[in-house]
Amino acid sequence: MTIDETAERVIPLPPGRVAGYAMDWRNDPEWTQGIGVATLTREADGGGFGVGAEVTRTAYFLGKRIDYVLRVAEHEPAELLDMVSVAGPMPMHVTYTFAPHPHGTLVGIRVRGDAGGFYRLAAPIMARKVRSSIGKDLRDLERKLLERTP
């Protein structure tokens, strides 16, 4: 079963500021549901974070520990971060978008995946959980950013 869930939220700050924080893998545990640890395990070909870089995330989902690796497929600072899983329990594609909006930044998160094995049985529950989680991610992203605003 395929999972394809999207959430959007307007955050009252400029796109560069929102995207800069959200695209920094070191901030993942602060605003991304269930992420306990995020580590840059492979730098981009040119060094640092960008296309080709890989981030290993440890999460807990439905009571199970999940370790997965996301590789950066596209990276447009302040606009787009597109990542695909290269290791983990199921194929996954995560896209973050950041667009100017009259009230700040329109942030979008889209998660696509193909639930197989144990996860196939739980796919309907997973889809609801993913939808809820990415909605909470955006709420927490806004809260963290506004806490940092002087």
Salient structural properties:
single chain, 150 residues, alpha+beta, seven-stranded antiparallel β-sheet, 7 strands
Describe this entry's structure for a reader.
- This protein is of the alpha+beta class and 150 residues long.
- The protein is built from 4 helices and 7 strands; from the N terminus they run E-H-H-E-E-E-E-E-E-H-H.
- The protein has helices spanning 15-22, 28-31, 118-121, 123-147; strands spanning 2-11, 35-42, 54-61, 64-76, 80-87, 92-101, 104-114.
- Strands 1-7-6-5-4-3-2 form a 7-stranded antiparallel beta sheet.
- It is globular.
- It starts with a strand and ends with a helix.
- The model has no long low-confidence stretch (mean pLDDT 90).
- Our estimate of the beta-strand percent is over 45%
Biggest sheet record:
7 strands, antiparallel
Radius of gyration: 15 Å
What series of H and E elements makes up the topology?
EHHEEEEEEHH
What is the helix fraction of residues, given as a range? 25-40%
Tell the overall outline: globular
Can you count the helices?
4
Structural class comes to alpha+beta
| DSSP strand tally | 7
The N- and C-terminal alpha carbons lie at a distance of 45 Å
Unreliable residue stretches:
none
Mean pLDDT: 90
What is the spatial order of strands in the main beta sheet?
A: 1-7-6-5-4-3-2
